[in-house]
Amino acid sequence: MEDQILKFLYDDSLKDEFQDLDHDDSLLELGIIDSVKMMQLIDFIEKTFGITVDEDDMMPENFDSINAITEYIGSKK
Amino acid sequence: MGYIVKEADLVKERDIMVNILTNNRSAGDFDYNKRFEWIYLNNPFGKAKAWIIWDDKKNIPVGFTGVFPRPAYVNGQQYMCWNCGDFSIEKKYRALGVALKLRRAAKDCIDNSEPPFLYAHPNERMEVIHLKVGHKKMAHMHRYALPIRLTRQVQSVVKNSKLAFFLAKPFNLLLSFKYRFSTFLGLSGKMYPDIQVNNDHDELYRKMTEAFPVVADRSNKYLNWKFGSNPNQKYQQFDLFYKNHLVGTIFFVHKGDVVHIIDVLIDDFDRYSSQLFRMFINYVRKSFSRSIVSLSFILAEFNPFVRDLKKLGFKYRSDATSGAIAYANEEQNSELAETVMDGKKWFMTVGDRDA
After folding, report:
1. Nearest residue of chain B to residue A27 (CA atoms)
2. How does pLDDT run across B1-58, given as a tens digit for each residue?
3. Helix axes A35-49, B124-133, angle to 10 degrees
4. Cβ–Cβ under 8 Å, residues B107 and B327
5. Confidence band (pLDDT; 50, 70, 90) for B292?
6. A62 to chain B: nearest residue by CA?
């Protein structure tokens, strides 16, 4: 699951950020995710993992790191 | 755990908002504090309104947005609307849910008829948030540019600046003739180093409210505030007269070797539109000597001036990235909503943005 998410998020212009990325690192602070990228990520997660992401869940706590995202997906399955 | 949007106290929470802007926008020596005073507190049509979104658990502000009241004429009737601006969220909180929550604050007011509609000029990324909450995109903002001297183009080929200057000279002379001998008799112009508007400008605005279905305020009161009192930008003005009667005005800024047209007032559009720009070009050439090489104007794709700009040789440039959006509640006033959410009805320029 982590690899699928990382592959989706990967952006060549941010390759330095991805190189040493820890799964607890803040994706928002690193600029890997912003509100627009999150919209695409949510679409990807809903299609790939078969869950529905409520608007109230689209908050930093659930999407700020690879671990937070996988934990969130796990909780919805 | 959650995020709460609260209406801001413009006086007590001013520092919070200024700090968020300063932290999240890179505009060099731009003074956000002075701007706050100007656009939030000294707006001639009433104080602005702002909302701050708080991280409820930590009790810290994580973003805010503002709306600026501005009258607008829609089909000849005056309404007060909101011009949205300053949407800003701290980097580590830029999650979609936070952005949507904050963006809905102004829309909720419109749905409660306070005021009847809003408009904004979001960039490409922000536009997605507007659309997601239900605002409607009504137009793209397009930039048009006109070279009035070819020295820069020649220099890019020959490299030597002195040689480029001499080689470009005959082309520059030809370009000057293009506009110099194509204005009709009785026209004259005047350049001002600052903003000098009076009742004649009010009259031009009044005529525009009759000529265009949707036109936001361009009265003396507004122009003096928007262009005359802006703490971070010095605007200049060009007036066009026909037999000593004011028939058009251009508000502009001069940055480097480019004159940026910001807004326009016009009397009889069909009669004076092209003449206004031709005379302006002649006066720019004369007033700024050789220091200006091009003119630039960002306006909505449907603005009627676009046709004349193209005829004058202005070329579309793809580097203006904002769109124009609007929102009115269709259930409450379907006719108004239909009109203000149709970009073809608006007379819109970059001057309609916040500044």
Report:
1. B92
2. 589 999 999 999 999 999 999 988 876 678 899 999 999 999 999 999 999 999 999 9
3. 60
4. yes
5. confident
6. B95
Determine the residue type at B148. Answer: I
Q: State the average pLDDT over residues B149-160.
A: 76
Counting as low any pLDDT under 70, the low residues of chain A are: none
Q: How many CB atoms lie within 10 A of CB B173?
A: 9
Cβ within 8 Å of residue B227, ≥6 positions away: B195, B235, B237, B251, B262, B263
Nearest CA-CA partner of B128 in A35, A29, A45: A35
Cα–Cα distance for residue pair B14/B9, rounded to 1 Å: 7
- Give yes or no for a contact between A42 and B96, defined as CB atoms under 8 angstroms apart: yes
Half-sphere exposure of A45 (CA within 13 A, CB side): 28
pTM of the predicted protein model: 0.91
The CA-atom distances, in angstroms, between B144 and each of A31, A48, B268, B296 are 32, 44, 22, 6
Above 60 in pLDDT, residue B243? yes
Give dist(CA B215, CA B209) in Å, integer.
Answer: 6
Chain A residue numbers with beta carbons less than 8 Å from the beta carbon of B92 are 26, 28-29, 60, 64
What is the ipTM metric for this complex?
Answer: 0.87
Query: Which stretches of chain A sit within 8 Å of chain B by CB?
Result: 26, 28-29, 31, 33-36, 38-39, 42, 55-61, 63-64
pLDDT digits (tens, 9 = 90+) for B259-274: 999 999 999 999 999 9
Flag whether residue B190 sits within 8 Å of chain A, measured between CB atoms.
no
| Nearest in space to B150 (alpha carbons), one of B131, B135, B169 | B169
Q: Is the pLDDT of residue B338 over 70?
A: yes
Contacts of A30 in chain B (CB under 8 A): none
The amino acid at B131: L
Sorting pLDDT into bands at 50, 70 and 90, what band is B250?
Answer: very high
- Residue from the list B1, B98, B125 with its beta carbon closest to the beta carbon of A36: B125
Query: Which residues does B65 contact at the CB level (< 8 Å), separation at least 6?
Result: B50, B51, B84, B85, B86, B87, B88, B102, B103, B105, B106
Which tokens belong to B90? Answer: 């701290």
| CB contact residues (below 8 A), chain B span 64-93, against chain A | 89, 91-93
